[in-house]
Design goal:
The complex is a heterodimer of chains A (250) and B (198). Chain A is mainly alpha-helical. Helices cover 71% and strands 0% of the residues of chain A. Chain B is mainly α. Chain B is 84% helix and 0% strand. The chains are: A mainly alpha (250), B mainly alpha (198). At the A-B interface, helix 8 and helix 9 of A face helix 3 and helix 7 of B.
Chain lengths: 250, 198
Amino acid sequence: MNENAMRSIERGLAWCGPIFIVTFIYGFGYLGHNYPPPNMMAMSSLELVNDFYLPNPLISVGMIMCATFGLFYMAWSCLLASLLRNQDGSLSALSLIELAGGTLTGWLLAFCPAIWAACAMMAGELDPDVIKMAHVMTWYIFDCTYMITTFQMLGLGLYTVLNKRQTMFPEWAGWICIAIGVAFMTLVFMPFVTEGPFSVSGMWNFWIIFTAWLILFFGVYNYYVLRYLYSTPGEQERASGVVRPAMAAA
Amino acid sequence: MTTGDLIEENPVLSSPHPGTNGIWIFLFIDLNIFLLLFITYLSERLRLPELFAQAQSALEPLFGLSNTLFLLTSSAAVAVAVNATRENLTPQVRRALLLGLLFGGLFCANKIVEYTLKIDAGITPATNVFFGLYYAITIIHFLHVLAGMIFLGHCWSVAHKEAGLLTYRKKIENVGLFWHIVDVLWLFIFPLLYLVGL
Protein backbone atom coordinates (compact mmCIF):
# COMPACT_ATOMS: atom_id res chain seq x y z
CA MET A 1 0.00 0.00 0.00
CA ASN A 2 1.14 3.53 -0.75
CA GLU A 3 2.94 4.91 2.31
CA ASN A 4 1.30 8.31 2.14
CA ALA A 5 -2.13 6.73 1.96
CA MET A 6 -1.34 4.53 4.96
CA ARG A 7 -0.09 7.51 6.92
CA SER A 8 -3.29 9.44 6.16
CA ILE A 9 -5.44 6.50 7.24
CA GLU A 10 -3.53 6.14 10.49
CA ARG A 11 -3.89 9.83 11.23
CA GLY A 12 -7.60 9.61 10.46
CA LEU A 13 -7.94 6.71 12.88
CA ALA A 14 -6.01 8.68 15.49
CA TRP A 15 -8.51 11.53 15.24
CA CYS A 16 -11.30 9.04 16.00
CA GLY A 17 -10.10 9.38 19.59
CA PRO A 18 -10.81 13.09 20.04
CA ILE A 19 -14.02 12.75 18.03
CA PHE A 20 -15.16 10.02 20.41
CA ILE A 21 -14.34 12.12 23.51
CA VAL A 22 -16.21 15.20 22.32
CA THR A 23 -19.30 13.41 21.00
CA PHE A 24 -19.55 11.11 24.00
CA ILE A 25 -19.29 13.89 26.55
CA TYR A 26 -21.99 15.79 24.67
CA GLY A 27 -24.24 12.84 23.82
CA PHE A 28 -23.88 10.70 26.94
CA GLY A 29 -23.22 13.40 29.51
CA TYR A 30 -25.18 16.46 28.41
CA LEU A 31 -28.01 15.24 26.16
CA GLY A 32 -28.21 11.93 28.02
CA HIS A 33 -28.45 13.71 31.39
CA ASN A 34 -25.75 11.54 32.91
CA TYR A 35 -24.07 14.14 35.05
CA PRO A 36 -24.36 11.92 37.02
CA PRO A 37 -26.83 9.21 35.96
CA PRO A 38 -29.92 8.72 38.12
CA ASN A 39 -29.38 6.53 41.14
CA MET A 40 -31.56 3.77 39.75
CA MET A 41 -31.09 1.36 42.69
CA ALA A 42 -32.71 3.90 45.01
CA MET A 43 -35.56 4.82 42.64
CA SER A 44 -38.86 3.16 41.90
CA SER A 45 -39.83 2.40 38.31
CA LEU A 46 -42.30 5.28 38.29
CA GLU A 47 -39.66 7.69 39.61
CA LEU A 48 -37.20 6.60 36.95
CA VAL A 49 -39.73 7.13 34.17
CA ASN A 50 -41.42 10.28 35.52
CA ASP A 51 -38.33 12.05 36.90
CA PHE A 52 -35.66 11.01 34.41
CA TYR A 53 -36.91 9.79 31.05
CA LEU A 54 -40.13 11.70 30.40
CA PRO A 55 -38.90 15.20 31.37
CA ASN A 56 -35.80 14.84 29.16
CA PRO A 57 -36.86 14.01 25.58
CA LEU A 58 -33.35 14.56 24.21
CA ILE A 59 -32.00 11.52 26.04
CA SER A 60 -32.88 9.36 23.04
CA VAL A 61 -30.99 11.73 20.71
CA GLY A 62 -27.93 11.68 22.95
CA MET A 63 -27.97 7.92 23.22
CA ILE A 64 -28.27 7.40 19.46
CA MET A 65 -25.32 9.77 19.06
CA CYS A 66 -23.37 7.53 21.46
CA ALA A 67 -24.45 4.41 19.58
CA THR A 68 -22.89 5.97 16.47
CA PHE A 69 -19.72 7.46 17.88
CA GLY A 70 -19.04 4.84 20.56
CA LEU A 71 -17.43 2.62 17.96
CA PHE A 72 -14.91 5.34 17.13
CA TYR A 73 -13.27 4.07 20.32
CA MET A 74 -12.89 0.70 18.64
CA ALA A 75 -11.24 2.23 15.59
CA TRP A 76 -8.82 4.14 17.81
CA SER A 77 -8.03 0.99 19.79
CA CYS A 78 -7.23 -0.90 16.57
CA LEU A 79 -4.79 1.79 15.56
CA LEU A 80 -3.23 1.69 19.03
CA ALA A 81 -2.79 -2.10 18.82
CA SER A 82 -1.00 -1.71 15.49
CA LEU A 83 1.58 0.51 17.21
CA LEU A 84 2.35 -1.93 20.03
CA ARG A 85 4.97 -4.07 18.36
CA ASN A 86 7.80 -6.32 19.49
CA GLN A 87 11.39 -5.65 18.57
CA ASP A 88 10.99 -7.76 15.43
CA GLY A 89 7.87 -5.87 14.35
CA SER A 90 5.38 -8.58 15.29
CA LEU A 91 2.32 -7.99 17.42
CA SER A 92 2.65 -9.37 20.93
CA ALA A 93 0.06 -10.90 23.28
CA LEU A 94 -0.15 -7.49 24.96
CA SER A 95 -1.08 -5.84 21.64
CA LEU A 96 -3.80 -8.42 21.07
CA ILE A 97 -5.19 -8.02 24.60
CA GLU A 98 -5.32 -4.26 24.01
CA LEU A 99 -7.05 -4.86 20.68
CA ALA A 100 -9.64 -7.26 22.08
CA GLY A 101 -10.31 -5.10 25.12
CA GLY A 102 -10.62 -1.94 23.05
CA THR A 103 -12.96 -3.56 20.53
CA LEU A 104 -15.25 -4.94 23.21
CA THR A 105 -15.22 -1.64 25.08
CA GLY A 106 -16.20 0.13 21.86
CA TRP A 107 -19.06 -2.33 21.45
CA LEU A 108 -20.31 -1.60 24.97
CA LEU A 109 -20.05 2.13 24.38
CA ALA A 110 -22.42 1.75 21.42
CA PHE A 111 -24.62 -1.16 22.48
CA CYS A 112 -25.65 0.10 25.92
CA PRO A 113 -26.65 3.58 24.72
CA ALA A 114 -28.79 1.94 22.02
CA ILE A 115 -30.79 0.18 24.73
CA TRP A 116 -31.09 3.35 26.78
CA ALA A 117 -32.34 5.10 23.64
CA ALA A 118 -35.06 2.46 23.40
CA CYS A 119 -35.92 3.03 27.08
CA ALA A 120 -36.20 6.77 26.39
CA MET A 121 -38.42 6.28 23.33
CA MET A 122 -40.72 3.74 25.01
CA ALA A 123 -40.89 5.34 28.46
CA GLY A 124 -44.34 6.77 27.89
CA GLU A 125 -45.76 3.60 26.34
CA LEU A 126 -44.53 0.60 28.29
CA ASP A 127 -44.99 -0.53 31.90
CA PRO A 128 -42.44 1.45 34.02
CA ASP A 129 -41.19 -1.83 35.53
CA VAL A 130 -40.15 -2.96 32.04
CA ILE A 131 -38.32 0.32 31.45
CA LYS A 132 -36.51 0.05 34.77
CA MET A 133 -35.55 -3.55 34.12
CA ALA A 134 -33.98 -2.63 30.77
CA HIS A 135 -32.35 0.47 32.24
CA VAL A 136 -30.82 -1.35 35.23
CA MET A 137 -29.74 -4.41 33.27
CA THR A 138 -27.97 -2.20 30.77
CA TRP A 139 -26.10 -0.37 33.52
CA TYR A 140 -25.04 -3.75 34.94
CA ILE A 141 -23.68 -4.65 31.52
CA PHE A 142 -22.02 -1.25 31.11
CA ASP A 143 -20.37 -1.15 34.54
CA CYS A 144 -19.94 -4.71 35.72
CA THR A 145 -18.09 -5.90 32.63
CA TYR A 146 -15.34 -3.42 33.49
CA MET A 147 -12.79 -6.22 33.15
CA ILE A 148 -13.01 -5.74 29.36
CA THR A 149 -11.48 -2.29 29.68
CA THR A 150 -9.20 -3.37 32.53
CA PHE A 151 -7.61 -5.94 30.24
CA GLN A 152 -7.19 -3.36 27.49
CA MET A 153 -5.46 -1.01 29.91
CA LEU A 154 -3.31 -3.76 31.38
CA GLY A 155 -2.15 -4.80 27.91
CA LEU A 156 -1.34 -1.25 26.92
CA GLY A 157 0.15 -0.29 30.28
CA LEU A 158 2.38 -3.34 30.51
CA TYR A 159 3.63 -2.80 26.97
CA THR A 160 4.43 0.81 27.79
CA VAL A 161 6.27 -0.06 30.99
CA LEU A 162 8.06 -3.24 29.92
CA ASN A 163 9.14 -2.34 26.37
CA LYS A 164 12.20 -0.26 27.15
CA ARG A 165 13.03 0.28 23.46
CA GLN A 166 9.88 2.27 22.64
CA THR A 167 9.63 5.98 23.35
CA MET A 168 6.16 6.57 21.89
CA PHE A 169 4.62 6.55 25.35
CA PRO A 170 6.30 7.60 28.62
CA GLU A 171 6.61 5.10 31.43
CA TRP A 172 4.45 7.13 33.80
CA ALA A 173 1.53 6.91 31.34
CA GLY A 174 1.80 3.13 31.41
CA TRP A 175 1.70 3.00 35.18
CA ILE A 176 -1.33 5.33 35.28
CA CYS A 177 -3.02 3.13 32.70
CA ILE A 178 -2.47 0.02 34.84
CA ALA A 179 -3.56 1.79 38.02
CA ILE A 180 -6.82 3.08 36.53
CA GLY A 181 -7.56 -0.29 34.96
CA VAL A 182 -7.23 -1.98 38.33
CA ALA A 183 -9.15 0.77 40.16
CA PHE A 184 -12.19 -0.10 38.01
CA MET A 185 -12.75 -3.12 40.25
CA THR A 186 -14.75 -1.01 42.72
CA LEU A 187 -17.54 -1.17 40.12
CA VAL A 188 -18.36 -4.61 41.54
CA PHE A 189 -20.11 -2.82 44.41
CA MET A 190 -22.44 -0.91 42.09
CA PRO A 191 -25.37 -3.38 41.92
CA PHE A 192 -25.53 -3.77 45.68
CA VAL A 193 -25.52 -0.22 47.02
CA THR A 194 -28.28 2.40 46.92
CA GLU A 195 -26.25 5.42 47.97
CA GLY A 196 -22.73 6.63 48.58
CA PRO A 197 -19.54 6.74 46.51
CA PHE A 198 -19.92 3.26 45.01
CA SER A 199 -23.44 3.64 43.66
CA VAL A 200 -23.93 4.10 39.90
CA SER A 201 -23.93 7.89 40.39
CA GLY A 202 -21.43 7.91 43.26
CA MET A 203 -18.41 10.14 43.69
CA TRP A 204 -15.99 7.26 43.21
CA ASN A 205 -17.73 4.91 40.78
CA PHE A 206 -18.88 7.63 38.42
CA TRP A 207 -16.98 10.88 38.80
CA ILE A 208 -13.50 9.76 39.88
CA ILE A 209 -13.23 6.51 37.93
CA PHE A 210 -14.71 7.69 34.64
CA THR A 211 -13.03 11.11 34.73
CA ALA A 212 -9.67 9.45 35.43
CA TRP A 213 -10.26 7.00 32.57
CA LEU A 214 -11.27 9.74 30.16
CA ILE A 215 -8.53 12.25 30.97
CA LEU A 216 -5.57 10.38 32.45
CA PHE A 217 -5.77 7.35 30.18
CA PHE A 218 -7.67 8.21 27.04
CA GLY A 219 -6.64 11.86 26.85
CA VAL A 220 -2.98 11.14 27.59
CA TYR A 221 -2.66 8.29 25.08
CA ASN A 222 -4.58 10.28 22.46
CA TYR A 223 -1.98 13.01 22.76
CA TYR A 224 0.98 10.66 22.42
CA VAL A 225 -0.56 8.74 19.51
CA LEU A 226 -1.17 11.96 17.59
CA ARG A 227 2.30 13.22 18.43
CA TYR A 228 3.81 9.97 17.16
CA LEU A 229 1.81 9.91 13.93
CA TYR A 230 2.67 13.52 13.08
CA SER A 231 6.41 12.99 13.59
CA THR A 232 8.80 12.19 10.72
CA PRO A 233 9.26 8.58 9.51
CA GLY A 234 12.75 8.54 11.00
CA GLU A 235 11.50 9.69 14.39
CA GLN A 236 8.69 7.13 14.22
CA GLU A 237 11.13 4.34 13.52
CA ARG A 238 13.26 5.25 16.51
CA ALA A 239 10.29 5.74 18.82
CA SER A 240 8.58 2.44 17.94
CA GLY A 241 11.46 0.31 19.24
CA VAL A 242 11.22 -1.95 16.18
CA VAL A 243 14.59 -3.08 14.82
CA ARG A 244 14.59 -3.17 11.03
CA PRO A 245 16.61 -5.98 9.33
CA ALA A 246 19.23 -3.50 8.04
CA MET A 247 19.69 -2.09 11.55
CA ALA A 248 19.89 -5.61 13.01
CA ALA A 249 22.56 -6.64 10.49
CA ALA A 250 24.59 -3.56 11.33
CA MET B 1 34.33 -4.06 29.94
CA THR B 2 34.22 -4.03 33.75
CA THR B 3 31.29 -4.44 36.09
CA GLY B 4 31.63 -0.76 36.86
CA ASP B 5 31.23 0.08 33.15
CA LEU B 6 28.14 -2.12 32.93
CA ILE B 7 26.60 -0.38 35.91
CA GLU B 8 27.38 3.03 34.47
CA GLU B 9 25.82 2.10 31.12
CA ASN B 10 22.69 0.62 32.67
CA PRO B 11 20.38 3.38 33.92
CA VAL B 12 18.46 0.89 36.05
CA LEU B 13 21.47 -0.25 38.02
CA SER B 14 23.19 3.12 38.23
CA SER B 15 20.27 5.10 39.74
CA PRO B 16 21.50 6.87 42.88
CA HIS B 17 18.34 6.24 44.90
CA PRO B 18 17.03 2.92 46.24
CA GLY B 19 15.05 0.95 43.68
CA THR B 20 14.44 1.89 40.07
CA ASN B 21 12.64 4.89 38.57
CA GLY B 22 9.66 2.71 37.68
CA ILE B 23 8.83 1.77 41.27
CA TRP B 24 8.86 5.41 42.38
CA ILE B 25 6.48 6.34 39.55
CA PHE B 26 4.23 3.42 40.43
CA LEU B 27 4.21 4.29 44.15
CA PHE B 28 3.42 7.93 43.42
CA ILE B 29 0.42 6.92 41.35
CA ASP B 30 -0.68 4.30 43.89
CA LEU B 31 -0.53 6.80 46.73
CA ASN B 32 -2.61 9.25 44.73
CA ILE B 33 -5.31 6.63 44.26
CA PHE B 34 -5.42 6.02 47.98
CA LEU B 35 -5.47 9.77 48.53
CA LEU B 36 -8.60 9.97 46.38
CA LEU B 37 -10.13 7.12 48.39
CA PHE B 38 -9.36 8.92 51.65
CA ILE B 39 -10.82 12.17 50.32
CA THR B 40 -13.96 10.28 49.27
CA TYR B 41 -14.18 8.76 52.77
CA LEU B 42 -13.79 12.12 54.49
CA SER B 43 -16.30 13.74 52.18
CA GLU B 44 -18.90 11.08 52.99
CA ARG B 45 -18.06 11.32 56.67
CA LEU B 46 -18.81 15.04 56.60
CA ARG B 47 -22.09 14.33 54.84
CA LEU B 48 -23.20 11.52 57.21
CA PRO B 49 -21.49 12.07 60.57
CA GLU B 50 -24.01 10.17 62.68
CA LEU B 51 -24.13 7.14 60.43
CA PHE B 52 -20.32 6.98 60.36
CA ALA B 53 -20.06 7.28 64.14
CA GLN B 54 -22.62 4.56 64.70
CA ALA B 55 -21.19 2.20 62.09
CA GLN B 56 -17.61 2.73 63.27
CA SER B 57 -18.57 1.49 66.73
CA ALA B 58 -19.17 -1.94 65.15
CA LEU B 59 -15.45 -2.22 64.32
CA GLU B 60 -13.01 -3.79 66.78
CA PRO B 61 -9.95 -1.53 67.17
CA LEU B 62 -8.00 -4.53 68.45
CA PHE B 63 -8.08 -6.07 64.98
CA GLY B 64 -6.70 -2.85 63.53
CA LEU B 65 -4.05 -2.47 66.21
CA SER B 66 -2.78 -6.03 65.88
CA ASN B 67 -2.62 -5.62 62.10
CA THR B 68 -0.60 -2.45 62.57
CA LEU B 69 1.91 -4.30 64.74
CA PHE B 70 2.12 -7.21 62.30
CA LEU B 71 2.86 -4.92 59.36
CA LEU B 72 5.37 -2.80 61.27
CA THR B 73 7.27 -5.93 62.32
CA SER B 74 7.13 -7.32 58.80
CA SER B 75 8.39 -4.03 57.40
CA ALA B 76 11.31 -4.02 59.83
CA ALA B 77 12.22 -7.55 58.78
CA VAL B 78 12.19 -6.56 55.11
CA ALA B 79 14.43 -3.58 55.89
CA VAL B 80 16.87 -6.02 57.52
CA ALA B 81 16.70 -8.18 54.39
CA VAL B 82 17.52 -5.22 52.14
CA ASN B 83 20.50 -4.25 54.30
CA ALA B 84 21.70 -7.85 54.41
CA THR B 85 21.56 -7.94 50.60
CA ARG B 86 23.86 -4.94 50.44
CA GLU B 87 26.26 -6.72 52.81
CA ASN B 88 26.05 -9.98 50.77
CA LEU B 89 24.74 -11.93 53.79
CA THR B 90 22.52 -14.35 51.90
CA PRO B 91 21.41 -16.57 54.85
CA GLN B 92 20.35 -13.45 56.74
CA VAL B 93 18.47 -12.20 53.66
CA ARG B 94 16.46 -15.42 53.51
CA ARG B 95 15.74 -15.48 57.24
CA ALA B 96 14.62 -11.85 57.27
CA LEU B 97 12.39 -12.32 54.22
CA LEU B 98 10.83 -15.37 55.82
CA LEU B 99 10.09 -13.36 58.95
CA GLY B 100 8.58 -10.63 56.79
CA LEU B 101 6.39 -13.20 55.06
CA LEU B 102 5.34 -14.72 58.38
CA PHE B 103 4.08 -11.43 59.79
CA GLY B 104 2.50 -10.56 56.45
CA GLY B 105 0.68 -13.87 56.67
CA LEU B 106 -0.50 -13.04 60.18
CA PHE B 107 -1.93 -9.77 58.86
CA CYS B 108 -3.81 -11.67 56.14
CA ALA B 109 -5.16 -14.28 58.55
CA ASN B 110 -6.27 -11.59 60.99
CA LYS B 111 -7.99 -9.67 58.22
CA ILE B 112 -9.82 -12.76 56.97
CA VAL B 113 -11.04 -13.52 60.48
CA GLU B 114 -12.27 -9.95 60.82
CA TYR B 115 -14.11 -10.07 57.47
CA THR B 116 -15.65 -13.43 58.35
CA LEU B 117 -16.98 -12.15 61.67
CA LYS B 118 -18.42 -9.08 59.97
CA ILE B 119 -20.13 -11.05 57.23
CA ASP B 120 -21.51 -13.55 59.76
CA ALA B 121 -22.99 -10.59 61.61
CA GLY B 122 -24.66 -9.48 58.37
CA ILE B 123 -22.35 -6.53 57.79
CA THR B 124 -21.47 -6.33 54.09
CA PRO B 125 -20.41 -3.58 51.65
CA ALA B 126 -24.10 -2.96 50.96
CA THR B 127 -24.97 -2.38 54.64
CA ASN B 128 -24.34 1.37 54.50
CA VAL B 129 -21.96 3.98 53.09
CA PHE B 130 -19.41 3.57 55.90
CA PHE B 131 -19.09 -0.16 55.40
CA GLY B 132 -18.99 0.24 51.61
CA LEU B 133 -15.93 2.43 52.08
CA TYR B 134 -14.52 0.21 54.83
CA TYR B 135 -14.62 -2.86 52.60
CA ALA B 136 -13.40 -1.02 49.50
CA ILE B 137 -10.41 0.59 51.22
CA THR B 138 -9.36 -2.45 53.21
CA ILE B 139 -9.86 -4.91 50.33
CA ILE B 140 -7.77 -2.78 47.98
CA HIS B 141 -5.10 -2.56 50.70
CA PHE B 142 -5.40 -6.31 51.31
CA LEU B 143 -4.76 -6.98 47.61
CA HIS B 144 -1.62 -4.86 47.92
CA VAL B 145 -0.53 -7.00 50.86
CA LEU B 146 -1.09 -10.18 48.85
CA ALA B 147 0.86 -8.80 45.90
CA GLY B 148 3.66 -7.73 48.24
CA MET B 149 3.83 -11.21 49.72
CA ILE B 150 4.10 -12.73 46.25
CA PHE B 151 7.03 -10.42 45.49
CA LEU B 152 8.65 -11.16 48.87
CA GLY B 153 8.19 -14.87 48.26
CA HIS B 154 9.86 -14.57 44.88
CA CYS B 155 12.82 -12.69 46.40
CA TRP B 156 13.13 -15.37 49.06
CA SER B 157 12.98 -18.21 46.53
CA VAL B 158 15.74 -16.82 44.29
CA ALA B 159 17.94 -15.35 47.04
CA HIS B 160 20.26 -18.37 47.17
CA LYS B 161 21.00 -17.95 43.42
CA GLU B 162 20.87 -14.21 42.89
CA ALA B 163 21.61 -12.48 46.21
CA GLY B 164 25.10 -11.45 45.15
CA LEU B 165 23.94 -9.81 41.92
CA LEU B 166 23.30 -6.10 41.49
CA THR B 167 20.03 -6.81 39.71
CA TYR B 168 18.82 -8.70 42.79
CA ARG B 169 19.73 -5.74 44.98
CA LYS B 170 17.57 -3.44 42.85
CA LYS B 171 14.80 -6.03 42.85
CA ILE B 172 14.70 -6.38 46.61
CA GLU B 173 14.93 -2.60 47.03
CA ASN B 174 11.88 -2.24 44.75
CA VAL B 175 9.97 -4.87 46.70
CA GLY B 176 11.07 -3.31 49.99
CA LEU B 177 9.85 0.12 48.91
CA PHE B 178 6.50 -1.34 47.88
CA TRP B 179 6.17 -3.21 51.17
CA HIS B 180 7.01 -0.13 53.24
CA ILE B 181 4.38 1.89 51.37
CA VAL B 182 1.83 -0.84 52.04
CA ASP B 183 2.75 -0.49 55.71
CA VAL B 184 2.55 3.31 55.66
CA LEU B 185 -0.87 3.16 54.01
CA TRP B 186 -2.14 0.98 56.84
CA LEU B 187 -0.83 3.56 59.33
CA PHE B 188 -3.32 5.98 57.75
CA ILE B 189 -6.13 3.47 57.22
CA PHE B 190 -6.16 2.18 60.80
CA PRO B 191 -6.83 5.52 62.55
CA LEU B 192 -9.08 6.75 59.74
CA LEU B 193 -11.43 3.76 59.84
CA TYR B 194 -11.07 2.49 63.41
CA LEU B 195 -10.16 5.42 65.65
CA VAL B 196 -11.13 8.87 64.38
CA GLY B 197 -14.42 9.89 65.93
CA LEU B 198 -14.35 7.35 68.73
